[in-house]
Every structure is written in C-alpha cells, then in structure tokens.
Design goal:
The protein has 487 residues and is an alpha+beta fold. The protein has one domain. The chain is 33% helix and 23% strand.
Amino acid sequence: MHLPAFLSPPPAPTNSRVISETPPGRRLARRGRLWGALVVAAFLVEARFAAAQAPAESEKPAEMLGVKVGTGVAEFEADDSMVIAGGIGPGKATGQEGKLRAVAIVLAKSPGEKLAIVACDILMIRRQYLDPVMAEIERTTGISITNILVNCTHTHHAPSAVKLLGVEPDEVFTRRVQQGIIQAVQAANSHLSATDCRFYFRLGKEKTVGQNSRLMMGDGQIYWIGPRDNAVRATALIDSELPVLAFRGENDRLQALIFNHSTHNIGTRLPGRRSPSIYGLAAQDLETELGGTVCFLEGASGSTHNLELTCDEASRRIEQAVQTALAQTQPRNVDKLAALKQPFKFKVRQFDESREENAVARYCRKYVPEQADKITAVFRSMRQELNAESGEERTTWLQVMRIGDVAFVGVPGELFTPLGLDIKNRSPFRFTYVAELANDWIGYIPDRESQKLGGYQCWTGQHSYVEPGTGERIVDQVTRMLRELKK
C-alpha cells in the first residue's frame, strides 16, 4: 500500500494493654463463633469470585449477544543496519527471531459501533506519528478515531521509532510502522465475519514472570541495573492478572484472542537478535498452536520487570497461563461496544540539575562503574535538551474502551504498576485492564511515592519528564471516563 504523503514525520512537539475479664469458656465459645464466621466469609469470597468468572443463569450460551470480528496482521520489515531502541545509546542486532508486527482486531455490532485494537511490536511511538495514522484509518474504514487504540508491546529489541537515551528514531522503520498499522486495520475491517462470533472471557494469573524491579538497596538507592546482592525489599506491588478474551466463530473456531499482562517486555531467545520478545514470541507461538490471531496488550509495567527468567522460559510460562485461562473461559454478552478518548494536559517537570547529575553519577559509579561515564553523559545531554522546556504544558490522549462488561484503559506512557492497580480498584467495571504505551508516549509515569524514592525511572530525561502528580491525575481522569462509559 502506498503511504499517504502526509504521513511523513512532522517535527517533534515543543509542546497510606487491656486485660480481658471474659471467662475462659466464653472466650473459647467466641473463638469458635469467630472461626465459623471466617470460614463463611472465605466461602462467600470464593463464591463471588466464581460468580464473576461464570455467566449468570440468564446468560446461557444460546442467548449470548455476539459481535462481528475481523483480524489483520502486517509485518514491519527491518534489517541489521537499523538502530535498536531500548538501551543506553544506539544498539545493533544481527538477524531476527519471530516477526515484528502490527496486529489488529476490529469488533463491530453495527457500522457505527466498531472498535479497532492494534498491538505493535515496537518500544513506543509518539502521537506526532500516530495522529495522522488514525486519521487515515478513520477516512478509509469509517472507524472513529475515538474508537481506535494503538498499543506498543514495548519490546526492547526492535528498531527505534522514538528519540531517547541517546538514540534517534529510524525514519524508514518508523514510516513502515505507520504503514503497517494502517494496513492491519484496513485488512481487519475488510475481513469482518459475516455472522456474529461468541465472546469468551477468563481472568487468569501469571505471578512468576514479573517482579517489582525498583528494589530498595542497602545504601538507600533504588535498583536499576548491575548487582543486586544488597537488595533489602521491593518498593511496590506487582499485578499478576492475565485476562484472556477469545472470540469464536462457526464450529467454535477461534477467530481472535486478546491477552494482557504487566511486565516489561525484555529479552531474546538468541542473543543479539531483533525480536518481539517475551510476549510477542508467546503470541506467535499461540497462533501456531491455536489458530486465529493473537493480540497482546502491555499492562501497567513501569515498575515491573522479569529479573530471573530467560526469555524462552518466560514466554513458555506466559503461553501456559494463556492456555490455562483459555480452557476455562466462559461465554459473555457483548451488549455494547463503546469508547471515549479525551485530551489530557500535563507539564514538563522542573528539576535541579546538580541534584539530578549527582543521583545518576552516584548510582552508576557504584553499580555499573565500567559504564558510568557513558551513562551520565547521556543523561546530562537529555537534561540539557529538556531544560528549555521545563514547565511547558503539553497535551496527550487518554482512552477508555468497553467490550460488554470488560473495559480497557489506554494510557500514553510507562505507567507504574501501583497506578494501574488503582485504576482497576476504582473502576465501575468488574473487569478493567490497562493498556500502557497507547496512542502516544510521554515517558515513565510514576506515582508520587515512587517519585520521592528516585531511581532510574524517575531520573529526569526524555524517558521520564512529567511533573510529580501526573500519574494520580491520569488515574482520576480515566476513572471519570470509565464512569461515563458505564452509563
């Protein structure tokens, strides 16, 4: 497909002693009643969880309201000459494992009630490249820009489509990403099923792949890279939820599957390769095993990484968790497809140059001394560029989307996991999941407590520049949007 001329990249925007007198016999009786009450409470919690996973009696499979489904896939061509993003300074790769793809799923209940969900096997991409892509999709398919969600899987092993950490975007690859997104959605829209597919859902779990990576070290610093033998404790929770959404057509054939999980997508099976990494490799293996098209949406993982497992083992565990959840899915109604997309204003943080320089240098000299000079120079350069933009107001996108009673929240950066958990806890939807790096990229988005602790994800640079409190404001706004979407 010929890429429209207007898709050439525009310039970056400037823009929480009493002594009992109760007789012993009565105390024992009370303990017995208390134990009985706890058993009943535990039974009720388990019953509620089971009820949440299973359809109500009024939702028998024969009565399920379905949805038309279309899928499309476009591959991003890449070669060894292209600079790889995801590290400090430009990286290179020799050869490739798996495919780098745009995976699109279009859901429709009527011509005016369509959603497009796209996953891209890249690190991240800014709205300056995505806004014209979405406009072209709307023009050629009729799918409203409001109803298009483009999520990056955050592989650290693909050519660069952003400027950060001393790496420039590869313009050729970036244009191929733009073109691939358009092609994938157009194909999905043109291949919508003639009849409704049934929607199946299960909330699975995988709690061994990701760990809180912002460990408190013995010297009070927050872990990033290097040895961690003096780690004291984790500083935040992780999110082990792994929802599986499956759409089945005639003869119960799997048409499409969406899954979501919240861990950084880093690692290759073979060293030095371009790769869709843990989740992309798992998705492609699942397609071979299951048929249908498999789409992965990266959850709120700004503070969660895989610290222990090889890429191959992590992918295997993700595949197993998806398969286990898929086998337990239950049919659900798709009574409504809807989305909201709203602008969100934020500011570039103000910072103390001396304090930032010392934080980077102190950590690097102790934990990665052989790379200390290079890393501190990269961060110094990024801050020099940001200094002129300090306090500047910018605008990005927030998005909420519902598929029946399942909601997705699109946020435009690497959202810290506690903020993702807060969204889930405050949502009016019983099933709510975050798709980070969606529709734009504004760097790491920490919660206030994490910002106070500091560490790499909070050091000022092109990778982390939003002012403190931005994350909490995002949670507040998407909570309001979810309530509106629920009406």
